[in-house]
Amino acid sequence: MTVSVAPSVSMFVELEREAWRALRASTPMTLTAEDLDGLRGLGEQMDLNEVADVYLPLSRLLNLQVAAAQRLWAEQQAFLGGSARKVPFIIAIAGSVAVGKSTTARILQALLARWPDHPRVELVTTDGFLFPNGVLTERGLMKRKGFPESYDRRALVRMLAELKAGRAEVTAPVYSHLVYDVVPDEAKVIRQPDILILEGLNVLQSGATGQRIPHTFLSDFFDFSIYVDATEQDIRRWYVDRFLRLQQTAFRDERSYFRRFSELTHEQAVAMAESVWNEINGPNLAQNIAPTRSRARLILLKGPDHKVKRVRLRKL
């Protein structure tokens, strides 16, 4: 008996960089080199050409998505005969440590805020929703920091639910990378933005189960999601390079949680960075982060030079 095998079917349209760049159309460049200096992550070779080729087409796509969502919201309110407050369009950005998702989030925030229809764009990172170090230590999770169980996911789901419910003011906890902990008694206040960007390692995973919000997933609140991707070999190298730069800069601050690493030799610092990758960041990427990639609406695939070489967009 002969069995015919159907060709594999992809959920994504795959675009090489040149094809993606053409989708910018007439979208104007609204960032300057000085703006970019304040948005670029440590060690990233981001330039205005990368913004023009990759992020302007993406901002154009997101502007279309936001406009469509706003029209749908208005039509639904007219249908219901109500006058509920407009709720924010929520964009999730996921990816590994050191892959550049924070820079992606900051650049998109700056670009999207320059479109006239949605000038109020807030950025929240999930770092603030990590349990404080004291709680992680008590639970034996300090070496699992960044893994799903190290986050107060119930609080994160609650914040997103309040935003989508139209609450006038919502707060998010603040995290300090200098002291490597949540800042006590400090919060970021979010007042009905047009767009909220949520950036973090595990944002495309399932949410928490709670008494007030049962069986709720983070993705239930997302209007669009992005995964920043690269090979593990490249990400590992970027992580080690970033560790070495931090050792010569931020780690030397008296307040730094990692100050003890500032005295390491170059060889010791490389060994320490590789150990952290092998024990924490690498396993977290393989077990928890990379498996969520296919849930994203759009995937940015980076090459060894940190430049985006290909874009995958989920078919509608």
Description:
The protein has 316 residues and is an alpha/beta fold. The protein contains eight helices and nine strands. The chain has helices spanning 17-22, 33-39, 48-80, 101-112, 133-138, 153-164, 232-248, 266-289; strands at 12-16, 89-95, 121-125, 170-176, 181-190, 195-199, 224-229, 298-302, 308-314. The strands form two sheets. Strands 1-9-8-7-2-6-3 form a seven-stranded mixed β-sheet. A hairpin with a 5-residue loop joins β8 and β9 (308-314). The longest helix is centred in the first third of the chain and has 33 residues, at 48-80. The radius of gyration is 20 Å and the shape is globular.
The first-to-last residue Cα distance is 37 Å
Reading the helices and strands in chain order gives: EHHHEHEHHEEEEHHEE
Count of extended strands: 9
Mean pLDDT: 92
User: Number of helical segments?
Assistant: 8
The biggest beta sheet is recorded as: 7 strands, mixed
Q: Key terms for this structure?
A:
alpha/beta, seven-stranded mixed sheet
List the helices and strands and how they pair.
Layout: E1 12-16, H1 17-22, H2 33-39, H3 48-80, E2 89-95, H4 101-112, E3 121-125, H5 133-138, H6 153-164, E4 170-176, E5 181-190, E6 195-199, E7 224-229, H7 232-248, H8 266-289, E8 298-302, E9 308-314
Helix pairs in contact: 3-4, 7-8
